[in-house]
Design goal:
single chain, 5 strands, 393 residues, five-stranded parallel sheet, 17 helices, Hypothetical protein af1432, binds fe (ii) ion
């Protein structure tokens, strides 16, 4: 129990009751005596007591009406109220308690009993508060732990993705850019009502986009001579290259077996396995066609190919954005999901800007403003209306 002197407001139209009550309580409590409900509410504007002791039978505003008004305001609803009455019938007791009173004391009250009852309720209130504090703390601790786990997993995933990227040193920034493209595509799907529910679910799950970074994790199994070959691959080499999809899925599956129920690894596995499937069934590894290809794979196909086209390689110059857009358009309904190509076309200027920004950021040439712009571009506008405003400016 805390030792701070508690404050009690005693409300009764009978002045001698107020005097008796005050005499009993004032040694241990700060006591305010008030002769009507109206006066109580005036005082409550200035002081919030620990308890209110409330007479039921009062002219004009009776105890029940006072109680209803107390419970109707968020500021006063949680102040414990003890009813006082000369009545000794169980109906008024029941009515008082059902209105939310914590207790009921009959007048004339015995001073030691009154003190004991107040003390008891003080203890209950303190314990309730302690429990509430404990719950709030627990909630905070759980949130903090969840955040720590997310950060740790994020770092592990990113490091894994970077290790893969390091080895294949021709694709600098590819993993990050494809993730960014994927993000703006999914945001645009929400705005255009295409697979909206699914897209919203992904946006809310912060692991979804992080997991996309592992789509090429399987390339660690591909030999250097193939991975770094500065030119077209032979059919045999290409066959080996194709296995980075199935191998990636196997690596992720292995991790999945060691941890419990991690949806981001499910996402990562689908990205790895299906990002080279084609809409017309001519892709790999399964040769899936149309909607049999998971939506994730169909999205990643566009992001992945766009980036491969505009990126510089030792054996090729970077292609212009316009040329890359027209190649993706040519692949509409062949390589790519036609509806997703339409979404891509409607936001292709954003692809171009994200590319510029991420190149500048990755090369260390960008300022804080460009980082902020990229961040804003990756936010879903329909969930964060602020961005629409910035884009219009
Ligand atoms: Fe790939």
């Amino acid at each position: 129990m805390d030792n701070v002197r508690k404050t009690i407001m005693l409300v009764d139209d009978n002045i001698s009751n107020l005097t008796i009550g005050k005499n009993v309580l004032r040694d241990k409590y700060n006591v305010f005596t008030l002769s009507s409900g109206e006066k109580l509410f005036k005082m409550l504007e200035k002081v919030t007591p620990d308890f209110i002791m409330l007479d039921i039978e009062m002219p004009e505003m009776d105890g029940y009406a006072v109680m209803r008004q107390l419970k109707a305001s968020p500021k006063t609803e949680s102040i414990p109220v003890i009813f006082l009455t000369a009545k000794n019938d169980s109906n008024s007791e029941l009515e008082g308690l059902s209105l939310g009173a914590v207790d009921y004391i009959s007048k004339p009250f015995s001073p030691p009993l009154l003190l004991k009852r107040i003390e008891l309720h003080s203890m209950i209130e303190s314990q309730k508060r302690e429990l509430q504090d404990y719950n709030d703390n627990l909630q905070e601790m759980v949130e903090k732990k969840t955040e720590d786990v997310f950060n740790l997993q994020n770092v592990v995933l990113q490091t894994m993705a970077e290790l893969v990227e390091c080895r294949d040193d021709i694709t600098g920034g590819h993993i990050e850019r494809t993730r960014f493209y994927l993000q703006i595509l999914v945001n645009a799907m929400v705005e255009r009502n295409l697979h909206r529910e699914q897209a919203l679910e992904w946006i809310k799950d912060r692991y979804f986009f992080v997991s996309a970074q592992l789509h090429d994790v399987g390339t660690i199994a591909i030999s250097d001579s193939i991975l770094k070959k500065p030119g077209p691959l032979t059919p045999e080499e290409f066959n080996e290259m194709k296995t980075h999809t199935t191998f990636g899925a196997q690596i992720i599956e292995k991790i999945r077996h060691r941890v419990n129920e991690e949806s981001f690894l499910d996402y990562a596995k689908i990205f790895a396995l299906t990002h080279h499937e084609k809409w017309d069934g001519s892709g790999y590894p399964e040769g899936l066609a149309g909607e049999n290809i998971p939506l994730q794979g169909r999205l990643m196909a566009i992001s992945d190919v766009y980036d491969a086209l505009i990126a510089e390689r030792p054996y090729k110059k970077p292609m212009s954005h316009e040329r890359a857009v027209s190649i993706i358009l040519e692949g509409r309904g062949k390589h790519f999901d036609p509806q997703l190509v339409d979404v891509f076309l409607s936001i292709s200027d954003q692809f171009e800007r994200v590319t510029e920004l991420s190149y500048r950021i990755l090369s260390g040439k960008s300022g804080a403003e460009e980082k902020m712009e990229l961040n804003e571009m990756l936010q879903p506008a329909s969930l964060y209306p602020k961005r629409q405003h910035i884009v219009m400016e």
